[in-house]
Amino acid sequence: EAGVTQFPSHSVIEKGQTVTLRCDPISGHDNLYWYRRVMGKEIKFLLHFVKESKQDESGMPNNRFLAERTGGTYSTLKVQPAELEDSGVYFCASSPQGNEKLFFGSGTQLSVL
Amino acid sequence: RKEVEQDPGPFNVPEGATVAFNCTYSNSASQSFFWYRQDCRKEPKLLMSVYSSGNEDGRFTAQLNRASQYISLLIRDSKLSDSATYLCVINYGQNFVFGPGTRLSVLP
């Protein structure tokens, strides 16, 4: 069974540019989460989808971040325009309905220069 | 006060040693508790859930103290491969909150 996959694994962009991160959860997992780890800090929650609906987006830093999960399958996280403080590792995780175990993707390392 | 707190370490221990980590949480409504392990430049992976009665998985033992709002992880007979960052994770409903992690280095 394929795990959670994220693309790209690394992205280097300049301040002001746009970047879109993609996450493919494990097939059949209703829950999809985005997290971010900024260097030296703990992993922080960004948002949670249940199928295609945003269950909780309280962790989104500001309106430069937009997440979608059309059709309840893969999800995208777009940052527009990117700022220096957006640099970090963006993790996606999924879990089946009613299951508390999170399965993580390998993350996207975003560097904003 | 942070929601989940851990001693960042590093804990440097020799092979075969026993080491224990604690984690405290501030929200008394916390529902479930986990220890995740994260290797350098890798994603977190579930090590074990933590149950009220305490639970053991091989060399790993987890304990929960709801009254004092802390959980612990005990590693016996440390192996070199146990070197990693150990993350305390608390679940409030459907939201998982991560601690900053405790770094463990097991030395030969």
Question: Would you kindly provide a brief summary of this structure?
Answer:
The complex is a heterodimer of chains A (113) and B (108). Chain A is built from no helices and eleven strands. With 113 residues, chain A is mainly β.
Question: How would you characterize this protein structure?
Answer:
- The complex is a heterodimer of chains A (113) and B (108).
- Chain A has 113 residues and is mainly β.
- Chain A is 0% helix and 50% strand.
- Chain A is built from no helices and 11 strands.
- In chain A, the strands form 2 sheets. In chain A, strands 2, 4, 5, 6, 9, 10 and 11 form a 7-stranded mixed beta sheet that branches. In chain A, strands 1-3-8-7 form a 4-stranded antiparallel beta sheet, with no helix packed on it.
- In chain A, a hairpin with a 7-residue loop joins strand 9 and strand 10.
- The termini of chain A are far apart.
- The model of chain A has no long low-confidence stretch (mean pLDDT 93).
- Chain B is mostly beta strands and 108 residues long.
- Helix content of chain B is 0%, strand content 57%.
- Chain B is built from no helices and 11 strands.
- In chain B, strands 2, 4, 5, 9, 10 and 11 form a 6-stranded mixed beta sheet that branches. Chain B has a 5-stranded antiparallel beta sheet with strand order 1-3-8-7-6, with no helix packed on it.
- The radius of gyration of chain B is 13 Å and the shape is globular.
Overall mean pLDDT score of chain B?
92
Mass-distribution shape of chain A: globular
- DSSP strand (E) fraction of chain B? over 45%
> What's the order of the H and E elements of chain B?
EEEEEEEEEEE
Helices and strands of chain B: which structural class?
A: mainly beta
State the helicity of chain A in percent bands: under 10%
How many DSSP helices of chain A?
Answer: 0
Structural class per helix/strand content of chain A?
mainly beta
Total strand segments of chain A: 11
Distance between the termini of chain B: 37 Å
Biggest beta sheet attributes of chain B = 6 strands, mixed
